[in-house]
């Protein structure tokens, strides 16, 4: 074998090793997005399971606030539907509605001293608030994983491997403008 043949074989092997490293990196990023989504999904499911308990506890005290309670249930169902379909766009919209409904519910609870003093309500309110914070943290991690994936599959030379093996971009979890704004406490208490 000539020196030229050995050099060509070495270059081909180095190129193949580089392509494999690129491919493995893209696979790792793709699975990072899936893992981040799964982490959100677990928390959404936990919150989904807690909300009926909260609504049921509130029903006992808030007979005249049926509309708010129904809003929370409708929003809960919209989040569940988007979650089950893995529809990130619909989830962002549904989450905005749910957060608004929960904000109204917790604000209305201020008008019911017996409800506020109820141990079950306090526990559920703390649990749901904790889940909301955890979901917000996971959203940030999910969007970071999506961003890393999307940037990487568009960069050269990764784009060549990504197109060859069908890697696609993922959708960021975005929220309505209303959810990004500060809450107007005056409207909640009027």
Number of strands: 0
General form:
rod-shaped
Mean of the pLDDT scores?
A: 86
Order of helices and strands: HHHHHHHH
Counting helices, strands and paired strands, the structural category is: mainly alpha
Which fold name corresponds to the CATH topology? de novo design (two linked rop proteins)
CATH superfamily: LemA-like domain
Which features does this protein show?
single chain, mainly alpha, de novo design (two linked rop proteins), 8 helices
SSE order and pairing:
Elements: H1 3-59, H2 66-84, H3 88-109, H4 113-117, H5 119-154, H6 158-164, H7 177-180, H8 185-188
Helix pairs in contact: 1-2, 1-5, 2-3
What report would you give on this structure?
It is rod-shaped and about 90 Å long. About 80% of the residues lie in helices and about 0% in strands. It is mainly α and about 190 residues long. The chain has helices spanning about 5-60, 65-85, 90-110, 115, 120-155, 160-165, 175-180, 185-190. The chain has a single domain, classed as LemA-like domain (de novo design (two linked rop proteins)), CATH 1.20.1440. Residues about 180-190 have low confidence and may be disordered. The protein contains 8 helices and no strands.
